[in-house]
């Protein structure tokens, strides 16, 4: 897989609160650009399917790796594109945590391969701001749910 982007933010909340907000799927639309709604078919764990509405279409992701409280990888497959979004939460002390997001894409098929550079740019422009929006949501409103 080729990396589309990597970002990180320091959130002024303890790591457990940050993880709780990160996995509060009904609130994901507040910080995931283009997502209108999201639900999880079970607890936040490896194998759990997330169903969401984005840009007018129903889509899904699967949690393919999960270390509860620390990291998870969400995988979405659309046509010839497989996208992995790897989130990590690290306690920094002083009531703050560093959150990282690395997005990787794998492209298969001739047409998808031809547009892959543009697709990676589009992914970076759209989703590269996720953590900035997440940080603002958590710090400004203190939103924390459960996942």
What do you see in this structure?
- With 147 residues, the chain is an alpha+beta fold.
- It has a single domain, classed as Alpha-D-Glucose-1,6-Bisphosphate, Chain A, domain 4 (2-Layer Sandwich).
- The protein has 3 helices and 7 strands.
- A 7-stranded antiparallel sheet has the order 1-7-6-5-4-3-2.
- A hairpin with a 2-residue loop joins strand 6 (81-93) and strand 7 (96-107).
- The longest helix is centred in the last third of the chain and has 18 residues, at 110-127.
Mean pLDDT: 88
Structural class: alpha+beta
Q: Can you identify the CATH superfamily?
A: START domain
CATH-derived topology: Alpha-D-Glucose-1,6-Bisphosphate, Chain A, domain 4
Number of strands: 7
Quick description:
With 147 residues, the chain is an alpha+beta fold. It has helices spanning 15-22, 110-127, 130-141, and strands at residues 2-11, 35-40, 49-54, 57-67, 71-78, 81-93, 96-107. It has a single domain, classed as Alpha-D-Glucose-1,6-Bisphosphate, Chain A, domain 4 (2-Layer Sandwich).
How are the SSEs placed, and which strands pair?
Elements: E1 2-11, H1 15-22, E2 35-40, E3 49-54, E4 57-67, E5 71-78, E6 81-93, E7 96-107, H2 110-127, H3 130-141
Antiparallel strand pairs: 1-7, 2-3, 3-4, 4-5, 5-6, 6-7
């Amino acid at each position: 897989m080729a990396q589309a982007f990597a970002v990180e933010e320091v959130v002024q909340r303890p790591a457990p609160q940050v993880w709780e907000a990160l996995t509060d799927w009904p609130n994901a639309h507040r910080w995931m650009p283009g997502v209108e709604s999201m639900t999880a078919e079970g607890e936040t764990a490896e194998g759990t399917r997330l169903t969401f509405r984005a840009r007018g279409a129903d889509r899904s992701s699967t949690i393919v790796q999960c270390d509860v409280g620390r990291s998870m990888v969400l995988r979405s497959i659309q046509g010839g594109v497989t996208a992995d979004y790897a989130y990590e939460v690290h306690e920094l002390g002083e009531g703050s945590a560093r959150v990282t997001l690395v997005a990787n894409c794998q492209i298969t098929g001739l047409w998808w391969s031809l547009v892959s550079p543009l697709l990676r740019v589009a992914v970076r422009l759209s989703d590269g701001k996720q953590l900035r929006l997440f940080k603002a949501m958590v710090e400004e409103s203190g939103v924390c749910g459960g996942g």
